[in-house]
């Protein structure tokens, strides 16, 4: 038998020689060199206490780039993209203040401030809906906003919540929420779009379906009690509910069949509520509310990692009925922080324009405010954190959405400090990293940004 070992070894040496020769040939700028032996070469880690942009970092980067054979021209295309988004010639609203593109309309930000100022004397509640993507950990942003406005303008209670928690954790820190015997459905489930509620979910009771809830006054003031309890459902056949307030005796409520959205409202002091479905397993439930008869009521209706376009799938009949029962004076939309890099922004803008148009058409007395995406960071396999570089483009797109829909806009991205903000906060231990690798601001930084938003709201 012929021995091929020597021939194979010769071939390997020829390939190595060719690769070594190629390493000395200048590459076109469109081709990025790869260090095949990078795992065997020593790494030059930069200490975290060196200031960002310092000479030490610049020198280290230049040495590494020179070793790789990469010059300034290799970065020309990417640099042009992001300079345009952050330069003084950009249309990006780089301010901590709120810009109101709907200032000429009836429902502008100034009209909202008038409603807030008159809420106590008029005994009319000012209702705020906060739709978000859970960028802020544990509802800290919305809870701080709710507490501050209720302390100044009156009001109490946690507002609207879904029948069961809809987030990944299975609970929300501002409320103790115990549920059993419920089946949950989302708008992305077949045959569900026509029934979805304001949160994008609806709920079906099984035998023994029950809910027990109360606001946690230790999390934020004025959450522990409210002036009324409301329940939202759709029953095409008669149902019977059992409701007990403040750990008292259960009272039975017989509700006749109805069309569209139905509401049961109980005017009473509420510290806690326990309610269950005694009859009516074919009915559909959406949520409940605990709030005051006047002052401010804020409903946090966040959907984790959502881009906001799911709201256009809420049926028009549902929005119209809900607006009659629970009309909003301010609708806050805070999305975009988790859009992937390859997002078609023109398509995203088209879908968000349709979403906002539908919400405005069915909530005609509401002021709308769009909060931009925040800064984001990414972690590589070595645990090193770096900024997500395309967020400025997303924020610029969102500003255009606000302008085209004549609504207000607040640049959270700029207020945080721009592209590197999340990276810097991560190094200062002000973020929380979830199991899926995504980052959230921690409680303290969420509260800090909520206070800055409140300042911007009052300066409007």
Which descriptors would you attach to this protein?
alpha+beta, Rossmann fold, Jelly Rolls, 5-stranded antiparallel beta sheet, 11 helices
Summarize the structure.
With 460 residues, the chain is α+β, with helices and mostly antiparallel strands. It has helices at residues 5-22, 55-68, 76-86, 109-122, 140-153, 316-325, 345-362, 391-404, 412-416, 421-427, 443-459; strands at residues 98-100, 126-132, 159-162, 175-186, 201-215, 226-234, 239-245, 251-255, 262-270, 273-279, 284-291, 296-300, 330-334, 367-371, 377-379, 385-387, 408-410, 431-433, 439-441.
Word description of this protein:
With 460 residues, this protein is α+β, with helices and mostly antiparallel strands. It folds into 2 domains: 84-154 and 294-460, 3-Layer(aba) Sandwich (Rossmann fold); 156-293, Jelly Rolls, CATH 2.60.120. The chain is 31% helix and 25% strand. Strands 1-17-14-13-2-12 form a 6-stranded mixed sheet, with helices on both faces. The protein has a 5-stranded antiparallel sheet with strand order 4-5-10-7-8, with no helix packed on it. It has a 4-stranded antiparallel sheet with strand order 3-11-6-9, with no helix packed on it. Strand 13, helix 7 and strand 14 form a beta-alpha-beta unit. Helix 7 packs parallel to helix 8 (391-404). It is globular. The chain starts with a helix and ends with a helix. The model is unreliable at 27-90 (pLDDT under 50).
């Amino acid at each position: 038998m012929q021995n091929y070992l020597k021939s194979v070894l010769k071939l390997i040496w020829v390939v190595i020689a060719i690769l070594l020769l190629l390493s000395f040939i200048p590459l076109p700028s469109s081709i990025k060199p790869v260090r095949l032996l990078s795992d065997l070469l020593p790494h030059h880690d930069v200490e975290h206490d060196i200031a960002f942009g310092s000479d030490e970092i610049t020198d280290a980067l230049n040495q590494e780039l020179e070793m790789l054979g990469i010059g300034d021209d290799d970065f020309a295309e990417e640099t042009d993209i992001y300079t345009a988004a952050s330069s003084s010639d950009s249309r990006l609203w780089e301010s901590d203040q709120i810009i109101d593109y709907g200032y000429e309309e009836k429902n502008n930000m100034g009209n909202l401030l008038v409603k807030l100022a008159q809420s106590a004397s008029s005994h009319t509640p000012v209702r705020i809906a906060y739709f978000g993507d859970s960028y802020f950990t544990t509802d800290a942003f919305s809870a701080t906003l709710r507490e501050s406005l209720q302390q100044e303008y009156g009001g109490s209670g946690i507002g609207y919540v879904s029948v069961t928690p809809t987030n990944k954790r299975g609970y929300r820190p501002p409320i103790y929420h115990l549920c059993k015997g419920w089946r949950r459905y989302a708008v992305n489930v077949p045959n569900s779009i026509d029934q979805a509620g304001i949160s994008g979910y609806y709920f079906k009771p099984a035998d023994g379906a029950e809910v027990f809830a109360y606001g946690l006054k230790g999390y934020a003031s004025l959450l522990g009690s409210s002036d009324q309890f409301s329940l939202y459902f759709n029953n095409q056949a008669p149902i019977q509910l059992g409701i007990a307030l403040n750990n008292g005796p259960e009272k039975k409520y017989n509700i006749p069949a109805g069309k569209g959205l139905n509401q049961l409202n109980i005017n009473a002091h509420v510290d806690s509520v326990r309610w269950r479905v005694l009859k009516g397993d074919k009915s559909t439930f959406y949520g409940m509310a605990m709030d005051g008869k006047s002052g401010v009521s804020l409903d946090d209706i966040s959907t984790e990692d959502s881009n906001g376009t799911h709201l256009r799938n809420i049926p028009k009949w549902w929005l119209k009925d809900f607006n009659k029962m629970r009309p909003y004076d301010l609708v806050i939309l805070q999305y975009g922080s988790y859009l992937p890099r390859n997002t078609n922004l023109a398509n995203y803008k088209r879908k968000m324009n349709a979403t906002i148009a539908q919400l405005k058409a069915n909530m005609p007395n509401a002021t709308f405010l769009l909060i931009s995406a925040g800064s984001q960071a990414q972690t590589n396999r070595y645990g090193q954190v770096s900024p997500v570089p395309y967020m400025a483009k997303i924020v610029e797109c969102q500003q255009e959405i606000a302008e085209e829909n004549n609504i207000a806009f607040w640049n959270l991205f700029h207020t945080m400090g721009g592209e590197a903000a999340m990276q810097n906060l991560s190094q200062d231990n002000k973020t929380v990293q979830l199991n899926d690798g995504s980052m959230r601001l921690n409680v303290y930084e969420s509260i800090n940004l909520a206070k800055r938003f409140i300042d911007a709201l009052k300066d409007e």
